[in-house]
């Protein structure tokens, strides 16, 4: 597993100008640094929570960070725009509709920022949110690139259903979907075909449903291949865009509001997290949730009472923010100190670091989960209650067990009373990672009454509706 750093996706270099892409692979997030070499100045777009990679980049060029542009208040990660402003004096730019609590300069339709031979032009492109903007980069008098935020992705466009209940500007998804239809056609598609497209997210984000694995494109290429730019009626576009969108994690609304306020500085927040070197389990508050990130096989061999197994992996942040409610205190534990330190930083990328009651390494525990009796299950499926923790759109596409009860993982803690206690429980997902968390949640509630099993990766062997 890669260390938690922002990796450089690519560098586009022309005479006196550089565009550097940074990638947070865990949240499938792209941020950008635009460098005017002739003036040694940098403007950042949609930076991640930890500003250090941008500071290191600026130091390499002996350049000054003069601005940070937020394309919208992000739902899936926390931005470092306020800290960068406080550390460097850089101006924060955002659309005036955003309603932010930090000092900023409005960057509305038609507004421009010029430095060196670079001109950045704001396009108001509502659809993902009412206050979304895209930024066109003009260099030497020609449009060269557009930073599309969550408006236009490679192969897709932004989802329109995240502002129905959060943010200062709430809007119905149908209303935003119609705005997206016009933003794409009246703004994006009117740019020249050769203009490069740099989105805020790639494949793996929950801000869209069909993103490509590519990290850049052109307007011309997207006109040919992106479904959202094809010829269709507005009604047909709205119907397609709204259908089968991914679930919305619990933390999304919290992050929108936090990004509108501006998050606290990253390093001081890391130093505030209490790390226990010698754990005495008796000192832990039994009412506080334990998030155990160790591998599922080790977790099953021994863990703390009531622990939820959110396995260390690429989707840790997503499932942490889907299972744990904003402002809910929790203990964080991992297999070793290195993983623990990384997971604390990754927790901060969604703004949850303040909710860590304490963090520590765990080697074992008194609670053991039983081994899945696979052969008996295959022969006697009726003897078990099968819980499917996949999302509803996944279940619609493919049913694995016809008599299963579908409770999506992100809803399981709130709907735990719906799980019948009359028979042993088998929990499954699509590949095994979510069922580890799901089975641990159910076991914490019912494990003393009935056996709870994790089908794990064996689910791949069940290709038909019932075995």
Question: What are the SSEs and their pairings?
Answer:
Blueprint: E1 7-14, E2 17-24, E3 29-36, E4 41-45, H1 52-60, E5 64-69, H2 81-88, E6 91-94, E7 105-106, E8 112-115, E9 118-124, E10 133-139, E11 142-149, H3 173-186, E12 196-199, E13 217-218, H4 219-225, H5 234-242, H6 251-261, H7 266-272, E14 275-276, E15 289-292, H8 296-301, E16 308-309, H9 316-323, E17 330-334, H10 337-348, E18 356-361, H11 374-379, E19 385-388, H12 392-397, E20 405-406, E21 425-428, H13 433-446, E22 452-454
Parallel strand pairs: 4-5, 5-6, 6-7, 11-12, 14-18, 15-16, 15-17, 17-18, 19-20, 19-21, 21-22
Antiparallel strand pairs: 1-2, 2-3, 3-4, 8-9, 9-10, 10-11, 12-13
Helix pairs in contact: 3-5
InterPro entries: Metallo-B-lactamas, Mito_Persulfide_Diox, POD-like_MBL-fold, Rhodanese-like_dom, Rhodanese-like_dom_sf, RibonucZ/Hydroxyglut_hydro, Thiosulphate_STrfase_CS
Domain Rhodanese: 284-329, 380-467
GO molecular function, one term: thiosulfate-cyanide sulfurtransferase activity
Describe this structure in words.
The protein has 467 residues and is α/β, with parallel strands linked by helices. It has 3 domains: 7-257, Ribonuclease Z/Hydroxyacylglutathione hydrolase-like (Metallo-beta-lactamase, Chain A, 4-Layer Sandwich), CATH 3.60.15; 264-361, Rhodanese-like domain (Oxidized Rhodanese, domain 1, 3-Layer(aba) Sandwich), CATH 3.40.250; 374-461, 3-Layer(aba) Sandwich (Oxidized Rhodanese, domain 1), CATH 3.40.250. 25% of the residues lie in helices and 22% in strands. α3 packs across α5. The longest helix is centred in the middle third of the chain and has 14 residues, at 173-186. The protein is globular and about 70 Å long.
